[in-house]
Design brief:
The chain is of the alpha/beta class. The protein contains seven helices and eleven strands.
């Protein structure tokens, strides 16, 4: 397929036995102008084949790795100028890339995220202020959870955006050495965005672009995920 009909993006998605969700996401991508590279990492054994999409690369881990290490490995060798980190439980009602890529016309922008909706149309909290101890206490008591108020469709700077869907300037990603693999799961996105800001790169939310998140919320149901969450938060 000619380069002119693909987005110059390397998209990384990690599957944890989520082949059905992944199949839906790949179906969305197949119906639009696709990323030039699509790297699917099976973090748990998978026997089902993937559809033969152009640019698709499949990797299988002999043992499960963390979010940060999986995406660093998938994105570390590409020559594409833009990198996308997308969860398999994301659905794309329309092509999000043209408008998101447009934000990079500002040379200081390092990360862009879309507005994320739940399947019932509710706005999810994928863009927040950096958390402090008092903020976490207020959130635990049912108070302000630190999310930004989204007003209109114009791009706006935010402290950090959630790793369920991030579009990243490859130059900026390399400049901050990617995700920190010391975070096994959770808060890798907070840390990445903090290091982006400290290095002079801006993080932006584009509310005019929407994706849908079919969240599993494992941290609320399993002690191991709760432990990872607490450890990363600390």
């Amino acid at each position: 397929m000619p380069e002119s009909v693909v987005h110059p993006v390397c998209l990384s998605v990690v599957s944890h036995g989520q082949r059905r969700l992944l199949a839906d996401l790949l179906g969305d991508l197949a119906g639009m102008r696709r990323p030039a590279e699509l790297v699917v990492t099976d973090n748990l054994p998978e026997s089902q084949p993937l559809p033969p999409l152009p640019g698709l690369q499949r990797r299988s881990n002999p043992r499960p790795l963390g979010f940060a290490e999986n995406h660093n490995r998938a994105l570390g060798q590409t020559g594409q100028p833009w990198l996308a980190v997308v969860n398999p439980d994301i659905r794309l009602p329309e092509d999000p890339f043209p408008a998101l890529l447009g934000c990079f016309s500002d040379p200081t922008v390092g990360v862009v995220a879309p507005r994320v909706l739940a399947p019932d149309g509710r706005l999810e909290d994928n863009a927040r202020r950096f958390p402090g101890f008092n903020d976490l206490v207020r959130k635990a008591m049912g108070g302000d959870d630190g999310r930004y108020t989204v007003d209109g469709d114009a791009p706006q700077p935010v402290d950090w955006a959630a790793g369920m869907f991030l579009l990243i300037r490859a130059e900026a990603f390399r400049a901050v050495s990617g995700f920190d693999p010391a975070y096994h799961l959770y808060y890798e996105d907070v840390d990445l965005c903090a290091r982006m800001w400290r290095s002079g790169w801006r993080v932006v939310l584009h509310p005019g672009v929407t994706v849908v998140h079919h969240a599993r919320r494992s941290s609320r149901r399993h002690w191991r995920y709760m432990l990872w969450h607490a450890r990363s938060m600390a």
